UniProtKB/TrEMBL annotation:
<dbReference type="InterPro" id="IPR058670">
    <property type="entry name" value="PTPase_dom"/>
</dbReference>
<dbReference type="GO" id="GO:0005524">
    <property type="term" value="F:ATP binding"/>
</dbReference>
<feature type="region of interest" description="Disordered">
    <location>
        <begin position="1"/>
        <end position="30"/>
    </location>
</feature>
<dbReference type="InterPro" id="IPR003593">
    <property type="entry name" value="AAA+_ATPase"/>
</dbReference>
<dbReference type="InterPro" id="IPR045735">
    <property type="entry name" value="Spore_III_AA_AAA+_ATPase"/>
</dbReference>
<dbReference type="InterPro" id="IPR034081">
    <property type="entry name" value="R3H_AAA"/>
</dbReference>
<dbReference type="GO" id="GO:0003676">
    <property type="term" value="F:nucleic acid binding"/>
</dbReference>
<dbReference type="InterPro" id="IPR036867">
    <property type="entry name" value="R3H_dom_sf"/>
</dbReference>
<dbReference type="Pfam" id="PF25516">
    <property type="entry name" value="PTPase"/>
</dbReference>
<feature type="region of interest" description="Disordered">
    <location>
        <begin position="347"/>
        <end position="394"/>
    </location>
</feature>
<keyword id="KW-0547">Nucleotide-binding</keyword>
<protein>
    <submittedName>
        <fullName>AAA family ATPase</fullName>
    </submittedName>
</protein>
<dbReference type="InterPro" id="IPR001374">
    <property type="entry name" value="R3H_dom"/>
</dbReference>
<feature type="domain" description="R3H">
    <location>
        <begin position="540"/>
        <end position="604"/>
    </location>
</feature>
<feature type="compositionally biased region" description="Low complexity">
    <location>
        <begin position="373"/>
        <end position="382"/>
    </location>
</feature>
<feature type="compositionally biased region" description="Polar residues">
    <location>
        <begin position="1"/>
        <end position="20"/>
    </location>
</feature>
<dbReference type="InterPro" id="IPR027417">
    <property type="entry name" value="P-loop_NTPase"/>
</dbReference>
Length: 604
């Protein structure tokens, strides 16, 4: 079924009336394009380059100008690139340009005040600028006619697409339409001053929308929360959501009833599903173990991937080309279908040369990503190949290289969901990745089995607790029990069983010891605790609070040595956060009055 609707060009009086701007009517697509102060961008270049650019017959369609030390200056167009001269760029040329732009921020971006142009720097190992990418900024009105009906629904919208496809341009136009034509309170979180331009006065292309600047890129998530708490917005506009803290802040904002409009790098939703940093934007992915009957009914393996929570963004738009967008009106349904190995059925919206939007319900063929599990594919249990199964020693294939490719927790989860480990018993063992035999039989002494079973089950460790010391591979005991129990030491010595001692029966210490027993501890890899070990009932609220604390510690406090304040939480949840911070051997304090009392984490 194909629907057709007319797109009316949206024209802003504030933009068109500015004599310093170039306005161009594109009759083929019925859009108004404003190239903001192109001469002001060209004036920052050395005289020889500036003259060539101003005399270029196609300067109105330029995308960016590139200056690299020791190379020829280059200008790029949508379909090609060409050199501006045969004289290599010198340090003096770079310095000339640097002195005529704004200050480069923490993300190595600068701008020209009250314009949309962006200047990005490339630095050497000493921090000196050796290259510049100067992108021409344009405000294009009428670009969102393709999805205007979705913008008016009030649902959160996520724009996906490769760099340069026009995500920021569409974001800027959405903010203007929501603020000027739908009379909503819009706040833009402008981390790199790319949406509303450089300087303290925002560019008129955003209309009545307000702009909050970010001092440092790593503080974007805090500014997002501050915008909601202090300025009562109805819509929050965010460009380039790229970290887990920003994804978590976006979920917090969406749960407070604020409409979100944001962008993320990735061509399709499948890219977000496979990205552990941003998967929460589409609901997050978790491994679920099915019962025998349910697995048989589905015709799948027992461990499958399912969506963990409702998506932060209800609508997703894949910007394949400037005139062709794929729209997923229900992200939850799309993610569920992909995880089950089925093809989603999004809308394909294209704009014709006459300016008409065509909505097609028949999507193009999109192959499923190879890393997503297919429900029609059943896992083949790994056959034991060790000497216990065959009665003689056999060489084992090198599985370390295979597992080395799984360089993230998410990829390891995908791998575990495909290959079910067979049930261990006393008569059969399977080889581990380094040739060791799994499972490892452990005889616990003086330590509660409930705690041990919880750690083994949550971390999926190949360890079996045994009450028979004759069949044990190792003894696990409290250090105080070993000192006062000479008989235990003598029995272990007679049976040649190693004794692994722990100072106390806390979850972190038991986790480290059991992982070491199973040969799964990597001394070169920083230890990331399993958050479920610190929760009481494992609720989403507890997991979210602990995840926020973990990301703050690992991404800001430890590497940048800066204190971080977390979001307000209940006393019970704050206690869990304190325990997690102690795991990293850091200090934390609670401050503020209820219900806004929150944690502050300090560097070591």
């Amino acid at each position: 079924m194909v629907n057709t609707q007319n797109v009316n060009p949206l024209k802003s009086q504030s933009l068109a009336s500015n004599p310093a701007q170039r306005v161009r009517e594109d009759n083929t697509t019925q859009r108004t394009e404003i190239t903001d102060n192109l001469d002001q961008l060209l004036d920052i270049f050395p005289a020889a380059i500036c003259t060539k650019l101003k005399e270029h017959p196609e300067k109105e369609s330029m995308i960016e100008i590139v200056m690299d030390l020791g190379r020829f200056p280059e200008t790029r167009f949508p379909d090609r690139a060409e050199y501006l001269s045969q004289t290599p760029i010198s340090r003096e040329d770079l310095q000339y340009t640097i002195e005529r732009v704004g200050i480069f921020s923490g993300d190595n971006r600068a701008g020209i005040e009250r314009t949309l142009h962006r200047i990005s720097a490339m630095r050497n190992r000493q921090g000196e600028i050796v290259g510049l990418t100067c992108r021409v900024g344009r405000a294009i009105l009428g670009t969102i006619g393709t999805i205007r009906d979705l913008v008016e629904t009030g649902k959160s919208i996520l724009l996906l697409g490769r760099p340069g496809v026009g995500k920021t341009t569409a974001l800027r136009e959405i903010a203007r339409v929501l603020a000027d034509e739908l009379d909503k309170r819009v706040v833009i979180i402008d981390t790199s001053n790319e949406i509303a331009g450089d300087g303290d006065i925002p560019h008129p292309a955003i209309g009545r929308a307000r702009r909050m600047q970010v001092a440092r890129p790593e503080l974007q998530h805090q500014v997002m929360i501050e915008a909601v708490e202090n300025h009562m917005p109805e819509v929050i506009v965010i460009d380039e959501i790229g970290t887990e803290l920003e994804a978590l802040a976006a979920r917090t904002i969406a749960e407070r009833g604020v409409q979100l409009v944001g962008t993320a790098h990735g061509n399709q939703i499948e890219n977000l599903i496979k990205n552990p940093t941003l998967s929460d934007l589409v609901g997050g992915i978790q491994a679920v173990t099915l019962g025998d009957d349910e697995a048989r009914r589905r015709g799948s393996q027992k461990t499958v991937l399912e969506r963990k929570a409702p998506p932060t963004f209800e609508i997703a738009v894949e910007m394949l080309e400037r005139q062709s967008w794929v729209v997923h009106p229900d992200v939850a349904e799309t993610v569920d279908l992909l995880l089950r190995g089925q093809n989603p059925k999004p809308q394909v919206r294209t704009v014709s040369d006459e300016g008409e939007v065509t909505i097609s319900a028949s999507p193009p063929t999109r192959p499923l990503p190879p890393t997503l599990p297919l429900t029609s594919r059943t896992a083949t249990p790994a056959q034991p190949r060790g000497w216990r199964a065959s009665g003689r020693m056999q060489p084992l294939p090198n599985q370390a290289q295979t597992r080395a490719a799984l360089n993230s927790d998410f990829e390891k989860m995908l791998d575990r969901s495909w290959h079910q480990r067979e049930t261990f018993n006393d008569e059969m063992r399977v080889p581990g990745p380094n040739g060791e035999e799994w499972p490892v039989y452990v005889y616990p002494y003086g330590i509660g089995r409930t705690q041990l079973n919880q750690v083994i089950e949550l971390l999926n460790l190949p360890i079996v607790l045994t009450k028979d010391m004759n069949s044990a591979d190792a003894i696990l005991a409290l250090r105080s029990q070993i000192k006062n129990h000479s008989k235990l030491r003598s029995i272990a010595k007679a049976r040649q069983l190693p004794i692994h001692a722990v100072k106390s029966g806390t979850m972190p210490q038991l986790t480290r010891t059991l992982r070491r027993l199973a040969g799964m501890e990597d001394p070169n890899e920083p230890e990331t605790p399993d958050l479920r070990l610190f929760t009481q009932n494992g609720s989403d609220d507890e997991i979210e609070a602990l995840e926020e604390a973990r990301l703050a510690v690992e991404q800001i406090v430890i590497p940048k040595r800066q204190p971080v304040e977390l979001l307000p939480r209940s006393p019970k949840v704050r206690k869990m956060q304190h325990e997690l911070v102690e795991h990293y051997r850091l200090q934390s304090d609670s401050f503020g009055e209820e219900p806004n009392r929150r944690l502050r984490i300090y560097p070591a």
